Amino acid sequence: MLSETEIGTGSTESVAMRKIVHVDMDAFYASVEQRDNPGLRGRPVVVAWRGNRSVVCAASYEARKFGVRSAMPAITAERLCPEAVFVPPDFTRYKAVSRAVREIFLRHTDLVEPLSLDEAYLDVTENKTGLPTATRVAKTIREQIREELHLTASAGVAPNKFLAKIASDWRKPDGLFVIQPQEIEVFLAPLLVGRIPGVGKVTEARLKTIGIATVGDLLVRDQAALEEHFGRYGRRLYELARGVDHHPVVPDRTAKSISAEDTFERDIPLTEMDEVILRLAEKVWAASRRDMRVAKTVVLKLKTSEFKTLTRSLTPLVPPETWEELAAIALLLRERVNVAAMQRFRLVGVGLSNFRETTESPSSIFGEL
């Protein structure tokens, strides 16, 4: 029976394992808005600009009941939940709250790897507060976030990052879930393969074509067969199905690039990509604004129906200052792709790279994530 028992007691093998906590703030941007404006509490809140081309940054749990999700077009969210209160994003404020959350993490360990403003991995194999188990650390962190910041967080505790991230989502919102080393196989086997990080809809569909729907189905396949179908990622699938993940928590890792991509339901020509490129540009722009960095280079990625990858990049004299400028550059890069008119594409991606740090507030945010 899986339970919130304490990681860190038991066999010598368990003690030798890492003790990882993944903390994920609940509906972070929307929760900050509801905390700071009592009139929004209990109401469906959507953090997004209104408009045909805007996308949802975050949705409160009241809005999620109507099917509203982050990265969804704002116009779709408005249709699903006509009573929703739309609040424009305020990333400067969210970043300040995120720093306060980070300060709580650092009371317990210096090994903190932020993934975004609202989630992070912590290696608490050894913790600074003398708490006896990783589970106690996770409970204490959640209590401190609730008492000091008046927000809720969910946490997962496990022997590695892969499992801890799955566990943190298990009892959302405001939950704690622990995966003990001896429970890994029992926990993983019934999960749909789509729960594995990195397995998107396309990969999930490919797995189903060879009879793999659950992690248990992966377990009975040998590594060579998976590598034959999926290349190097086949080895990763083989390991994750067994709960194996050796990646350490890396403090203060700064992403060298930020990107978003979309795989089309059907292969399309270059001339039909405008709407998707605009949406991806807005999504990438908002993600880059979260940590106030400025990117010098814009990248466009395309994958043909034959799985050939094409990339185009541009480093303008002045970096883009709005998501619209980013989108305009991405569309310009598309025009630099010299292919036959009949060429079809299955994927497009927009990215930013070559970052420099800045302390300036973003001049324009047209929100996402």
Set out the fold topology:
Layout: H1 12-16, E1 20-25, H2 28-36, E2 45-47, E3 58-59, H3 61-64, H4 74-80, E4 85-87, H5 91-108, E5 112-116, E6 119-123, H6 134-149, E7 153-158, H7 161-168, E8 176-178, H8 184-188, H9 201-209, H10 215-219, H11 223-230, H12 232-241, E9 257-268, H13 274-289, E10 293-304, E11 309-314, H14 323-335, E12 345-357
Parallel strand pairs: 2-4, 7-8
Antiparallel strand pairs: 1-6, 1-7, 2-3, 5-6, 9-12, 10-11, 10-12
Helix pairs in contact: 5-6, 11-12, 13-14
Quick one: CATH class of the largest domain? Alpha Beta
Alpha-beta content class: alpha+beta
The average pLDDT score comes to: 86
Following the backbone from N to C, one meets helices and strands in this order, namely HEHEEHHEHEEHEHEHHHHHEHEEHE
Q: How many distinct folded domains? A: 4
Q: How much helicity do the residues have?
A: 25-40%
Low-confidence stretches: 1-15, 358-369
Query: Using DSSP, what is the number of strands?
Result: 12
Q: How would the global form be characterised?
A: globular
The assigned CATH architecture of the largest domain is 2-Layer Sandwich
If strands are numbered along the chain, what order do they take across the biggest sheet? 5-6-1-7-8
Biggest sheet statistics: 5 strands, mixed
What percent of residues are in strands? 15-25%
Report, as a whole number of angstroms, the end-to-end distance: 35 Å
Global Rg = 22 Å
Q: How many DSSP H or I helices? A: 14
CATH fold label of the largest domain:
Dna Ligase, domain 1
- CATH-wise, what's the superfamily of the largest domain? DNA polymerase, Y-family, little finger domain
